[in-house]
Fold this protein.
Amino acid sequence: MFKAVSSGFRVALMGVAFGMMSVAAHAQAQGNWVMKAPAPGPLAEVGIAAVDNKLHLFGGSILGYPGPRHLEYDPATDKWTNRAPFPNRLDHVGTATLNGKIYTMGGFIGGSVHNSGQNVAYEFDPKLNTWRILAPMKIGRGSVNVVAIDGKIHAIGGRDALGNTLTLHEVYDPGNNTWKDAAPLPKARDHAAAVAVDGKIYFAGGRLGPSTERSAQVDIYDAQSDKWTSGPPMPTPRSGLSGTYYKGLFLVLGGEFPQEMRTWTENEAYDIKANTWRTLAPMPSGRHATGAVTIGDHVYMAAGSLTPGGIGATNQTLEFTLP
């Protein structure tokens, strides 16, 4: 015969069940990751942008050898297709989207050497499937952060052809195909993450010089006043990271730390209204040398490297969702 379960034991069981439910609910509240269809081949140090609800991946390199690749991923069908080849063999390219077109600035020819920064700028029209050469930047630079705000394209920081990190901040006007200078970045760095939100640019992390000098610094640029102010630093100093604006949050993802032979799985989010950082569900595995874009209710990342440098180049495509 079965014995009656004591009320105390029932309470204990309920407590365990409630605890498990609480953990599950907490994990869900921090978001979840799903693996999607892989890209046709592994690539690191790619340029990534989103337009018309599709992800575009271009440039990049395998073991330091850049190529003119340009691939498009459609989340609706979970499929990759080829688009018009990128017009140059570059990696570490800065990207932004404005008025239905993709803009790319700078990049390195020398792969992981970081000493061949280019001053080139291009515009891609997805409807025509064509690239157009734009007026060049003032000097060559790679690993530059590029964002669109108020109808203009801002190219910030980066590393020049001599390997120096930069405070240089240039603004491109698509209306007349010209560049002008803006207030320089307060601290020179590259391999950072940046987004534009409500007339301001948020610039986080990056590398001050060599890969040992990773930063947690956050700088905020006001386009109207042409001035920078400081924001709360990232919880985890990182370089080689990716960033995107998603559901009111500036997501900062991944990065590398070659000295410890590791890549970061960290997924930290800056709540712009609350002016605070929070921790979200980490990536399934650490990575750098990629980008992140927001399409609809999801964040997408593709390719990159699972290890420091480009040896661990991957073809993985990841989807992140917050409830």
